[in-house]
Amino acid sequence: MSPETTTLPRLTRENHGRPAAPVRIVHLGIGNFTRAHQAWYTEHAPDAAQWGIAAFTGRRPDTAEALSPQDGLYTLITRHAEGDTFEVIGSLSAVHPASDTAAFLGYLRAPETAIITTTVTEAGYMRGADGHLALGDPAVARDVEALRADPEAPTTTTPAKVVGGFLARRAAGTGAIAVLPCDNLPDNGPTFRGVVEELAAEVDPTLQEWMEANVSWATSMVDRITPATTDAEREAVAAAEGYDDASPVPTEPFSEWVVAGEFPAGRPAWEESGVTVVDDVHPFEQRKLWMLNGSHSLMAYAATVVGHETVADAIADPTVRGWVEEWWDVAGEHLQVGAEDVKAYRAALLDRFSNPRVRHLLAQIAADGSQKIPVRILPALRLEREAGRLPDGPVRALAAWVLHLQGHGAPVKDAREADVVAAAQGTVAEATTGILKVVGPDLLPDDELVAAVVAKADELLALEGTAKKS
Ligand code: CS2
User: Fold this and answer.
1) Residues 231 and 272 in one domain
2) Residue 219 C-alpha to ligand 1 middle, in angstroms?
3) Which domain holds residue 397?
4) Are 29 and 58 in contact (CB under 8 A)?
5) Mean pLDDT across the chain, nearest whole number?
6) Stretch 90-119: mean pLDDT, rounded?
7) Is the CB of 352 under 6 A from ligand 1?
8) What is the rounded distance in angstroms from the CA atom of residue 245 to the CA atom of residue 237?
9) For ligand 1, atom 1, which residue shows the shortest CA distance?
10) Which pLDDT tens digit goes with each residue over 118-132?
11) Per-residue pLDDT tens for 27-62?
12) Which of 262, 279, 296 is the last residue of a domain?
């Protein structure tokens, strides 16, 4: 960092005249996404002064280390095609490392705490291949043992943290609370409820009755493209705003949050800050997961084989854009929203993906395919196979993922890395069968599908590296 930058004032509540709101929301898994999304909506609610968020990090304490000296304040940089706008967000009243069990249980015991929110990724739900809590997973097993021995024990998995929190809240007698998952997976409310209840049953079956009486499980669809922070963002804030922010967040102008569910202990007036409150999130969620996230995953695998690095580069390549359109043609057919809606959504996505000022790395999106492909690509493929069809869109996405697992394109980083890399050994045909056994066994046997994946993989390999800048 240059000498000028270090002499800039720090971003703190005192320097910026921003008192912290009382904590009423506890968030698990703070990262850039939440800071661009939920924290922004909360900041903009008319009753923001009553609704502070206490955020806990994922495994790495980095965000707490960066934000605690700034009293939870940070700069949101909105990257419009024509330039940046900067805004200090103050809704994080406290930021703790995941290991701070005492703080977490303290919030859960407090009657003021009304909501638990999560962004712990698909993998954080700790589900096995059958969709149930992976009781055999060593981290889950350790947490169950720990909570059986001591309900206040530190735990590492999200379902266990929530069970520990509920045990503390029951003991404190502080009553009703809502859980609002903000993770990118279908039916996140009922899904999260399932794993928490399964874990509770192992630890203390009497908690079920308390949860029935006191816990409301809301569901939400979340959307805002939010890349990781680099030095360029820290420098942009220093240059434009004249203060030193260790952890600003870059994001796109678009944002959407669709929420369904009851909040027995209250919630911010989020509908006033742009949240859509509905009875059923499903059609929104399916549209977003299949269209946006499905094409993201397709590009993350296929376009990195070709040699692209970012979403904007990939979508500017007519070949990749053609693959994305081809996928949208298939996915769009099965959505529960009208054709006009699909058309408008596609146009908006092209616009968002093309924003050259949002440097969204395909390698970041490529992570955790084992959790993403089954909810983004396989549902439409399954519907197509049931109808006796075999369209290119989903087949190409599957072929690109298989190639990725075999070492082509973006590097592999996956919560189930050992399983999926082992399943993808051998020829592409063997790898396709192997990987479908792990993520979609109901799709097998299907020789036609396997042959189509092999053909698409050959097409991709013929283009390998052709887009690399010399
Ligand atoms: C992306 C998402 O990394 C990924 O898997 O597809 O993070 C995507 O950017 C967000 O869901 C957008 O709302």
Assistant:
1) yes
2) 18
3) 283-469
4) yes
5) 96
6) 98
7) no
8) 7
9) 365
10) 999 999 999 998 899
11) 999 999 999 999 999 999 999 999 999 999 999 999
12) 279
pLDDT for position 5: 47
Residue-wise pLDDT for 301-316, tens only, equals: 999 999 999 999 999 9
49 and 83 housed in the same domain = yes
Span 175-200, average pLDDT: 97
Residue 323 tokens read as: 């693959």
**Is any ligand 1 atom within 6 A of the Cβ of residue 293?**
yes
Please identify which residue in the block is written with the tokens 């805002």: 224
CA of 182 to the centre of ligand 1 (A): 12
The Cα 468–Cα 302 span in angstroms is 13
Q: In what order do the strands lie in the sheet with 249-251?
A: 83-89, 74-80, 249-251
Question: Which position has the higher pLDDT, 230 or 3?
Answer: 230
Nearest-atom number in ligand 1 for the CA of 292 is: 6
**Is the entire prediction scored with pTM above 0.85?**
yes
| 373-383: average pLDDT | 97
Q: Whose CA is nearest to atom 3 of ligand 1?
A: 365
> Is the minimum distance from the CB of 288 to ligand 1 under 6 angstroms?
no
Give me the number of domains the chain comprises: 2
DSSP bridge partners of 287: none
Give residue 225 CA to ligand 1 midpoint distance, Å. Answer: 6
Query: Do both 223 and 319 map to the same domain?
Result: no
Closest ligand 1 atom to 226 CA:
9
Q: Does ligand 1 lie within 6 Å of residue 70's CB atom?
A: no
Q: CB under 8 Å to 27, separation ≥6 — which residues?
A: 34, 38, 53, 54, 55, 56, 116, 117, 118, 119
Both 349 and 274 in a single domain? no
Instruction: Kindly state if the Cβ of 346 falls inside 6 Å of ligand 1.
Output: no
Ligand 1 atom nearest to CA at 37: 13
Residue type, 391: P
Kindly state the average pLDDT of the residues 225-250: 97
